[in-house]
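[09:14] KT: can someone run the structure on this one? pasting the chain below
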Amino acid sequence: MSSVAHNEDLFSDSYRESALTFDALKAGVAECAYSDIRHIFSAHHYKGARIGGGITQCLALVYDNRIAGGMVLGPPRHSEKYPQSIDIRRMACLEDMPRNSESWFLAKGIKWIKRNTEARGVLSYSDLTEGHVGTIYKAANFDMMGTTSPTKWVEWNGQKYHPRSLSIDRDYSYALREAVDKGEATIHTGQPKRVWYYPLYNRKQRARI
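[09:31] RB: done, structure tokens below
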């Protein structure tokens, strides 16, 4: 991915003009390192660039030879309920991309997963606390499987952390726990997330889960 320019090149007048109408002939999906797409999440995802849990693959939406979106894949946290599935851990595109860019990226990402992994299904979530009802997944024929328990997060110094950050063995986790004890960090409870599932090989698979 070293030959692909980062977002400092994305705000030229010529690129803004070309981005007004999505051109699939200029678009592609490529496997990449997380470092190639980290800047996308830092600027354009409500959770930012910090991501916990396992990462198995990362995909970049390349538009006109520039990175314009990122997708992070990993094992589902509830693998016993969704066996042989892969989780879209995070996905985002630059804000100046056309509206259908994420839908195109999602569809191509699913095709990439089917061709390059042994997964039988794809999982993703829409966070109701953030007003994300899952329109993009419904439009892509995902099945809405239910909801999670209410989401929780820790807010500290203007950033949000997953509650698991309070129990892991990292330097920032020690500081975070201390901040909670001192009342400097706050634990919030939000709404549930909707769980979305796309069977890769048989739509009847939904009934067996």
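[09:33] KT: thanks! Residues 2-10, 205-209 have pLDDT under 50 and may be disordered.
[09:34] RB: yep, looked fine to me
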